[in-house]
Design a protein that fits this description.
Elements lengths: L1 H16 L11 H15 L6 E2 L2 E2 L6 H13 L3 H26 L2 H12 L2 H6 L6 H18 L11 H25 L2 H16 L11 H22 L3 H15 L11 H9 L7 H11 L2 H20 L12 H16 L4 H28 L7 H24 L6 H25 L5 H10 L5 E5 L5 H6 L4 E3 L6 H6 L7 E2 L1 H8 L5 E6 H5 L10 E3 L8 E5 L8
Parallel strand pairs: 3-4, 3-6, 4-5
Antiparallel strand pairs: 1-2, 6-8, 7-8
Length: 559
């Protein structure tokens, strides 16, 4: 079994890490979750997260701490920045394997782990720095520990003394994992697993299990892990309590204060697409799993998959990654179905799915190739160009694996082709997006890094680019813009020196200090500078980006 775990983890990690640092950080989310750890390392303030030097309390700090530690060890490049997410995604697949093995079999667990890795959304999120992947890891660990500690529906049977001691450690691991989930993304880390466990205890009539869950000592452990940071942050900034718990939790769920409203069916559509290529098999897989599992275990997986879907659908704040916690139980339900397919069952369905994915990928490649050949790749994305022939070779290999299944009743070649083609669809999607996306400020930051002196000031005019302080490794002066930084600027008066109004900007612009000013083309078109200030445009630095770079001193105007 150890060899199976090693092979599973290694192969998934290789898939997740391949070309991981090929393109710049995406804005705003990726750059935000890189900038906050950078600030921690630079300022040595590990209590209060900061964004561009401004206190930022929207999320707790556990992921930031881990990311800052990773940067301190591996450096500040994009590969190092995304490595922690890729490792968490690999861990999520291994936890899914463990749950599938516990409920079904070793082979079903392996199939479940691979199934999760190959979902479109699961694979995509493994390559983006977001909090939802580590949150899902800790929620999955919490529920896995609960199920391992309570062998439902046989909890009335007493285990041996050795097994009982092990069970106690698993129970405490459950509380610790829930605490880590809370420290990753707030109360949702305890609400989701608590809701699922409570619903299962009620529906399965297993409330007597609560007596065995070591509530007092477990809750004490949970509070020991979660309270210190919340208390420390509240002592530094008393306004933290209202903003963090009311504005960032209850208002986010019940109101549209964050402007992320979507229709009620949004997450149903996201799950349907995100679980591809396995979506067509879910009903058949669930029906098969129902026959194999005790009713209480099947109910546990169904509640785990449905309740977060319903919960987030009721929320007034909806983003695509929120739905990731339902993927592990769905993958576990798919495990026995896919394991049987490997042995020869469900041949027609597997061939149809592989043929559909292969055909779609082939058409995509045929449509993309002329566009890619006409468009020079971004200077920061060589791998995008190299992935073009690689994508064709892998697609051809997948179709080669698919071909034997057309003449054979055994679905194994088609299943291999489906996995390979799905993997390449993820790489091609990343390559396609990076090939034609010119939204990064990295070229400008690279240019400025060669010109900047310590006394120079970099200014963002009426906007805030999350990736600019990341790539410049310094705070940026922001003119006439607050956005998500509004709360931090209100509670920390010192931020007034770099989060400035328009009149202060013009005074600095007229001074002797050199300023590099980045603004949108629309803002430049409507710019009305006073006579005392002259801004000259530094051309050619923001090609493809709707921004312009200017300076207040002609001596800085160098091509």
């Amino acid at each position: 079994m150890r060899f199976a775990i090693l092979l599973l983890g290694l192969s998934i990690a290789i898939a997740f890490f391949f070309c991981l640092g090929a393109h710049p950080y995406l804005t705003p989310s990726e750059a935000r979750y890189i900038e906050i750890p950078r600030q921690m390392v630079v300022s040595a303030d590990w209590v209060v997260p900061h964004l561009n030097g401004v206190p930022y309390f929207e999320k707790p700090p556990l992921f930031y701490w881990m990311q800052a530690a990773a940067f301190s060890i591996f450096g500040w490049n994009e590969l190092a920045g995304r490595a922690l997410t890729a490792l968490f995604s690999t861990a999520l697949c291994l936890l899914t394997f463990a749950l599938g093995r516990m409920l079904f079999s070793l082979r079903a667990g392996i199939a479940a782990g691979f199934a999760l890795a190959l979902t479109w959304l699961g694979f995509g999120l493994s390559r983006v720095v977001l909090l939802d992947v580590p949150l899902t890891v800790f929620i999955t660990a919490t529920l896995l520990c609960f199920r391992a500690a309570v062998p439902a529906p046989y909890s009335h049977l007493r285990a041996s003394a050795v097994k009982e001691r092990r069970r106690q450690w698993i129970i405490y691991a459950m509380y610790a994992a829930a605490a880590c989930a809370v420290l990753t993304k707030g109360l949702i880390g305890a609400i989701l697993p608590g809701m699922i466990i409570a619903a299962w205890l009620t529906a399965a009539r297993q409330w007597r299990i609560v007596k065995e869950m070591r509530l007092l000592s477990g809750i004490a452990l949970f509070l020991i892990i979660t309270l210190p940071w919340h208390i420390a942050a509240g002592l530094r900034y008393p306004q933290f309590w209202q903003f963090y718990f009311i504005h960032e939790h209850f208002a986010r769920f019940t109101t549209e204060v964050h402007h992320r409203a979507q229709p009620w069916w949004f997450f149903l559509a996201v799950a349907t697409i995100g679980l591809m290529p396995w979506t067509p098999f879910i009903y058949a897989a669930a029906t098969r799993a129902k026959r194999l599992l005790p009713p209480a275990d099947f109910l546990f997986l169904v509640l785990w998959a449905l309740l977060p879907l319903i919960f987030f659908s009721l929320s007034h704040s909806k983003l695509i990654p929120y739905i990731l916690p339902i993927f592990p139980p769905v993958a576990v339900l798919l495990g026995p179905f896919l394991a049987e397919a490997w042995d020869g069952a469900h041949a027609r369905a597997i061939r149809a799915a592989a043929g559909g994915v292969g055909g779609a990928l082939l058409l995509f490649g045929m449509a993309w190739t002329p566009l890619a050949e006409q468009s020079a790749p971004p200077p920061w994305f060589d791998p995008a160009w190299r992935l073009l022939p690689l994508g064709w070779m892998a697609t051809a290999a997948g179709l080669f694996c698919l071909a034997p299944s057309l003449f054979s009743r055994h679905p194994r070649p088609a299943l291999m082709a489906l996995g390979l083609l799905t993997l390449m669809a993820g790489y091609w999607g990343q390559s396609f997006a990076a090939q034609f996306w010119r939204g990064s400020v990295k070229p400008i930051a690279t240019y400025l890094s060669e010109k900047l002196q310590p006394e120079d000031e970099v200014v963002l005019f009426e906007t805030y680019r999350q990736d600019l302080p990341v790539y410049l490794n310094r705070n940026i002066t922001v003119v006439e813009y607050k956005g998500e930084l509004e709360f931090g600027t209100r509670i920390e008066p010192a931020t007034a020196s770099w989060m400035i109004p328009l009149d202060v900007f013009w005074k600095r612009c007229a001074g002797e200090r050199r300023l590099y000013v980045l603004m949108t083309k629309d803002a430049y078109a409507h710019l009305q500078a006073p006579a005392m200030c002259k801004l000259s445009h530094i051309g050619g630095m923001a090609d493809g980006l709707d921004m312009m770079l200017l300076t207040n001193q002609e001596s800085a105007h160098e091509q």
